[in-house]
Inverse folding.
């Protein structure tokens, strides 16, 4: 969250002479200056105070529980879960088992084709797999579903529909003539460009080609995360969960000799953006699933990132790096899945099936000692062989 500095200027004399003066003479009446109105305090009721506290400190989690065969586990109660905030057990404020429950707002599914970070061959294959999923089950979709594409031109999305066949026809128009990202601008323009997220290139001993590559990577990084941030912000006030199924290998992580070593200012910039994105995704109840071909986790630049758990984001601004924004990391932290197979249609179907049975629970976090204070979250099922997927962190407020 961007920090705001409140600057208060106190002026004792404005528009008048400040020299000391004697009392007014008897012939001259002093001007009558009306006394300032006394502020009226409006007391809040106990219920209003409780509601305000919940808005600030209630953490809502959607929890998927699966067995050793990756099948959803039903029939669990609140007593079957232990929730840890920074390793400390917390009392659940609410608990609900959701099993096809239509009394609440139905979840929405968004299939995002990431053409910005994929090659031509992958894009063609992914479009076919999206169509295969939409046409399965005779085109009848379980939940309102929309198709979206991310390209260099921006983020485009269809209207939600449960008619898979109609959505398939619409997606052919939406996804028509989509091409991989190509850098634009002359070499001089690229070399002198200023990246939005504060991570720049350097020409220390590098060829101009390498410098241009760095700018291209930064552009894709910025466009991708801006699209995800805007997507999440648009869902904050919409009732119900959103399952975003991101189809593609993910964006660049801005590593390598093309880039400067992160300065304190850059790390602060990354941290503020990360906190805001993390909070927005959680409050919008967005679960991000990352699906792709089997090489998803074999990208060379991910090898160093995997040394740090995907579930753990930056604790402080000193620790923040561009790699914290990896698609795979954000997916894990949102409670989503990271899957890889030759059938993207099957991966989509499994992500959608995960929404059929889950547990919605919440707890009230304690006020933090400072803004944007890191908290790790862990939900355990007190049953042997049961794994859970849910949010893995949040940033608390005083």
């Amino acid at each position: 969250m961007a920090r705001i500095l409140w600057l208060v200027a106190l002026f004792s004399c404005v528009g008048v002479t400040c020299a000391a003066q004697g009392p007014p003479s008897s012939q001259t009446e002093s001007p009558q200056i009306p006394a300032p109105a006394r502020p009226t305090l409006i007391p809040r009721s106990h219920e209003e105070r409780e509601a305000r506290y919940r808005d600030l400190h209630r953490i809502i989690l959607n929890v998927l529980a699966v067995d050793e065969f990756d099948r959803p586990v039903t029939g669990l109660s609140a007593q079957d879960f232990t929730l840890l905030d920074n390793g400390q057990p917390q009392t659940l404020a609410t608990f609900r088992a959701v099993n096809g429950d239509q009394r609440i707002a139905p979840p929405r599914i968004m299939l995002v084709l990431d053409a910005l970070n994929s090659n031509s061959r992958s894009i063609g294959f992914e479009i076919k797999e999206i169509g295969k999923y939409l046409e399965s089950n005779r085109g009848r979709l379980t939940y309102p579903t929309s198709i979206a594409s991310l390209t260099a031109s921006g983020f485009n999305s269809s209207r939600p529909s449960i008619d898979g066949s109609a959505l398939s026809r619409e997606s052919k128009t939406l996804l028509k003539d989509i091409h991989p990202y190509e850098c634009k601008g002359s070499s001089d323009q690229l070399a002198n460009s200023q990246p939005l997220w504060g991570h720049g290139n350097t020409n220390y001993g590098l060829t101009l080609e390498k410098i241009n590559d760095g700018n291209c990577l930064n552009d894709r990084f910025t466009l991708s995360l801006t699209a995800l941030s805007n997507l999440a912000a648009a869902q904050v006030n919409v009732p119900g969960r959103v399952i975003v199924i991101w189809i593609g290998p993910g964006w660049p992580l801005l590593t390598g000799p093309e880039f400067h070593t992160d300065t304190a200012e850059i790390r602060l910039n990354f941290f503020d953006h990360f906190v805001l994105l993390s909070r927005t995704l959680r409050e919008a109840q967005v679960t991000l699933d990352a699906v792709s071909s089997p090489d998803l986790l074999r990208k060379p630049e991910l090898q160093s990132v995997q040394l740090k758990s995907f579930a753990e984001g930056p604790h402080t601004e000193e620790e923040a790096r561009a790699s914290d924004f990896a698609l795979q990391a954000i997916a894990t932290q949102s409670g989503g899945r990271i899957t890889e197979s030759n059938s993207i249609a099957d991966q989509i179907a499994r992500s959608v099936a995960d929404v059929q049975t889950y547990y919605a629970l919440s707890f009230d976090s304690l006020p933090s000692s400072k803004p944007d204070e890191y908290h790790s979250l862990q939900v355990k099922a007190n049953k042997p062989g049961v794994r859970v997927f849910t949010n893995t962190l949040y940033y608390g407020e005083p």
The radius of gyration is 26 Å. The CA atoms of residues 97 and 359 lie 5 Å apart. Residues 1-31, 185-206 have pLDDT under 50 and may be disordered. The first strand starts at residue 58 and ends at 66.
